[in-house]
Amino acid sequence: MGITFNPSDSAIVRGIKTVGVGKKGSKSLSQELAKEILSDLKAGKVPDAAKGAFFAGLSFKGIELEEIVLDQYFEREATLLNPNLLARSLCKDAPELIQWICEQVMMQNTLDKETAYALGCFLLSDGPADAARGLIASALRVRYETDDEYEGILKAIQQTIVPGFLSPAAKGSSIVQLAEPFDGNDKSYMITPLIGRYLMGLNYRVVHLVGRNSGPKFDLNLLDVAELLKVPFMKNASDLDQVQSQFGWFLRQKELSPAVDRWVDIRRQTVKRPFMATLEKFLNPFHAQVIATSAFHPPYGEKMLTISERAGFPGIIVIRNGIEGSLAFSLKRETRILCSAIQKDGTYLRHEIVFQPEKFLVESVDVEEKMDHPKAVDNARLIEDYRRTGKTENKHFDLRVKATCEGFRMAMEWIGQNVRATMDEGRRTRNE
User: How far is it between the farthest Cα atoms of the chain?
Assistant: First the structure.
């Protein structure tokens, strides 16, 4: 598959899309594009975060003859061919420790948890050195983040939660956090509010974290749909006792952590999905007993389980091989529900449920529904129709809700039977 450019893409965006894809997808720049990027760099037209992301991707890919012209941007000759010197040149306005970390990352060395935490604190600060932030976002993505790096950065992210959301949640039934990806959906309608409504009916408290769309799929995300549904948004922790909709509680990222929300703008400059796209879903202001998230590609199922366990969630659900960018299940292929439950000794018990939609639904569909540019307003209307009458004019939508809710029931049943720690109180509350 070739690299797709939009007519509005600047030279640096086209460059990042070319060299910053990853180990298997990055391509070499044409000499014409390299010269165009150089011209924009010299003219000061390239945002710092984009600059860092571009050169990190280019360095990791390996420098080709047609790309050497970009070395003219730097004061010292052969900077482009020296990862250490490249890191220092791009990140000279960063603190000394961060410059050293950038060098280590550019040399493809991994970071321990403590160093990753220090890096996370810098990444989430509002000081200068966005080139260093872009470089780290791109380099870690291409090299692949380690579990220790995820854990250290996530610790720093958790510390950015504003005071109003630090109060303990009131006692009550167990809290389920639905961690729908923030960064856009362009092939299907979202059903997450209806999953929340179903779990509310099972007497769980359901929290949806939502935030601005950083792309690259800008058609709609859960925040867009929630706003059209006119759900109330939480302002502080006490709203968990007071403000809710039939779909659960909704919490905007910008009110939970302005520092994480600032990264939306950085991510739009760096183009490709960085570690923040994974970690922002794990902010846990209410100490939820269960997190439900998704992973479309096989290696990320294991990664999502590990991050969730290290984040301390007692019960974990990872939907794998469902609808990409969504918690929704496929109607044509098996969806694998990866579950994990904490035990009394602090270890986790894992389990996989293979959900066969056609077997459960006792019917099949001809093809998996795929749309081009679904509209949030249509999505919200379908959700409202289903809420009112239990059906819509869209057969795929109705079957997907039915299948997905059944899969969640199975997963929650397994977790309820196997968690041996903090969900005990929630289960007792539901039974009183």
Answer: 73
